[in-house]
Structures are given as C-alpha cells and as structure tokens.
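User: My advisor, Dr. K., asked me to get a structural model of this assembly before our group meeting. I'm new to this, so sorry if the format is off. These are the inputs:
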Amino acid sequence: MNTDPDLVRGTLNTILLETISRAPMYGYQICKTVNAKTSGYFNLREGSLYPALHRLEQEGLLKAYWEQADTGRRRKYYQITDAGRRVLAEKREQWQAFATAIQQVLAPSALPAM
Amino acid sequence: MNTDPDLVRGTLNTILLETISRAPMYGYQICKTVNAKTSGYFNLREGSLYPALHRLEQEGLLKAYWEQADTGRRRKYYQITDAGRRVLAEKREQWQAFATAIQQVLAPSALPAM
DNA sequence: TGAGTATACATCGGCTATCTTGGTATGTCA
DNA sequence: TGACATACCAAGATAGCCGATGTATACTCA
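Assistant: The format is fine. Below is the predicted structure of the whole assembly, which you can bring to the meeting.
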C-alpha cells in the first residue's frame, strides 16, 4: 500500500524528534532507520528529510554537530534539545488526541449525531 | 489543545466519505456532526468543507442533489457513490496502516534499528 | 418592526510542509 | 575505471487547509 503524502504531513517532525530523542543521529541514518522501523511503509527521502532537519534546528529543537566517521566521511549529527523534548511531548499528546478523534469518526458504532 | 491543520490534511476526505456513507447529509449538517462527533477536537469550517465536497463530487465519489427542507431552506445533500465506498474502504485501510506505522515509531519499546 | 442570531451555500488568497528533481562529493569493491 | 552506497544539500512545484468575506433566508425576541 502506498503512503499518502498528506498523511505524513504533520507527523514528520514528530517522527524525527522521536527518532533523534533516543540517540543523536545523522541524516542518512535517520532516513534508513525510519524507513526500516516502519517496515518500508514510510518512504522518507532526503529531499524531505534535510529541509525538515534544518527547520527543526532553526527552531532550536535540534542541535547539530559534525563528526568524522571511521570511514573518513563527515557526518552531521543531530541531537535533541530540551526545548525539543518539550515539543516532542506535546506532539505525542497531539497525535494521541488526533488519532482518538479519527477513531471516533471511523468507529462503526458511531451514532448519527443530530 | 489545538488541532494541527497538517494532521487534518489527508484525513478530511476520509472523514467526509465516512460521515456521508452512513446517510446522505448536507454541508452545514456535516460540519456540525463532525465537530460534535469529535467532541470539538476538529474545528471543521465551511472554508475547508465546501471545497472538499466539491472535489469529492468531481471525482465521482459523492453525488449531490438539492432538497427543500420543511423550514423552507434549500439544502444540498451529498450521497456516497459506489466508487466512493470503494475509496473509503481503501482509505480506512490506509489510515490503519499509517497509524500502525506511527505507533511503531512512537512506541517506547522500539529498538534503535541499525 | 427591527436587530440579532442561526442556518445554508460559496469563493478566494495566503500559507506552508512535503515531493520531485537535480546536484556535489567521498569511500568501497570488483 | 566504473558502479554503487554513503552523505550532504537546494530549489521549484504542488496541493490542500484556514481565515476572511460574501450572499441570502428563516427564526426569535423585544
């Protein structure tokens, strides 16, 4: 099944903050991790990822630092900030509320209001 | 808590199809019903609703007809089509898959992949 | 009878996050 | 040397929701 891009919208930041909150990660790794973790359901691309990371960094929710890998390549690691954790907590709640609301609509038992 | 417009995006069509699938409804009624059904969590406005209804009608997922209410006012009722029911079924599945994927990311037990 | 509110339809511009496409550069392996 | 994975990034296009605004009718209550 295809992922509807419009479903992804609004959750990407949450996904990124959540993923990075576990351990500092670099872009390419985040891409692979998220896609793997959702069994390929998400098809997160770099064209979506990097702008999002930059946005979150600019908002002070992430902090970036460069590191040299054993392979010799430079990697830009992203680390969550305290502000990031606060926002993440909010976004988690927001998601739960949203999912609940949707379920309320999709529930077969829902009575026709009015 | 505020509803993130970006979360609504991509689910509005599903919500509308689902709501209308139970019984033909007119715009104003849909607005009130959805908002009531989600305990005010959604704040569906006419500026979002009517364009969406028109879009769905143009795609052949809804069919509209006018009716005169007892009150004397004209109401434009929307009815789901067979194509609409098929798409709704898809969208329900899509939503479940999506919600599952998100849960997989948000699950505290998720192991750091890679 | 007049004002205010609820009902009922609709359009339009602005916003913005995501997608697609394209680009640069390095390391590995055959 | 060529192919591929790794690793970063930019830019333009897209498309859908939101807020504001407009029109018109019916009801309520002073």
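One thing worth pointing out at the meeting: The first strand of chain A starts at residue 25 and ends at 26.

User: Perfect, thanks a lot.
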